[in-house]
Amino acid sequence: MPTFPELERCLLRLVSMLRSAERMMESLGGALMMRQFTEEIGWRPLPPDTCDCCVAAVDSSFAAFETRLCVVYVVQGLAISSRGASVKGADAGTIAYSPSIEQGRFKVSPKRVVSAIAQLLEIELVSKAIEDSGGVDYALMDGSALSFLLSKVGKVLSERIVNSVVRGSRIDVSTLCRAKLRRLTKLADRAVFVAKSSGLSLAMLGLSSVGSLVAPDLSMLEIARLANVEPLRRAGVSKVFRVRIEGRIARSLGLDDYDLEMLRSRGIDTVSVMYVRIRDGAPAFQVSMLGDVDESRVAEVVRCLARWSPLGYPVPLESVHRLSKLRRRVIKSLLRSLAPAVSGREVLE
After folding, report:
1. pTM, rounded to two decimals
2. Which has the closest alpha carbon to 63: 328, 264, 341, 286?
């Protein structure tokens, strides 16, 4: 089916709009907001040297299809280490509603359930890669620490049931998410979460003294790069923002008292968040770690990331992302095998 001429004209105008850094800055509140953001984020130059560190990296790719019977999902992942270890894994199964849905419970989207399955697989794979390689300094995870902590099980214990060809049948969402949290706590000392995109802002977390800073932090840093805003366009690192896992933050993550007690028993009551730009003019990314990380460890992590990011982004993460990605032909083949059960709006991810 060809693209309509009307859409082609809209796309041309969209490209022009996105390429105009000045127009994008205006849409986010103008130069005044950028000055406020620069003051709040505490940008400083990168440490002058790198460090000789060993890392592991992991990523996964998944797809879900809504059929007339249930939601079908497939996921595959890959973990590698700089010491030569490589571990692959996969899972497939179905997601259905529990036969006993209670009134007043919230629904969990199938995509969120599959995302939790993929994150659990990534944690298992990178743990195995670390073991096979005899240990590493850091495990690089694609995404943010807060997204890996996301549970959302408090009011949905009976809402979604997973039937996995690997993990078994009739697994409820809470069992899946708590297994993920337990495995994640064992990686707390090594896990470094690297996110290329995030909707997180300092104002959302209550960490900004300027109430107008509601735009995502990475959006502001990208505008600074495109508009050549000093010093934010330069290679550097922000100050560390410490997010306490309690109150509103814990509720938004869906963590109940049991989850919070499990995290605190492992010394995890805080997520440390910062922003890094490895090369002048390169895109920035968010770096987060579990726990209250001190400045010496922050400097060590930044030097390690610089060591593995000659072009501005960690090469091990880029490698596992490309190698684990599900190909379109695989998805089309699966869709053909599911016919005629597909619903018409079948691809969820």
Report:
1. 0.86
2. 328
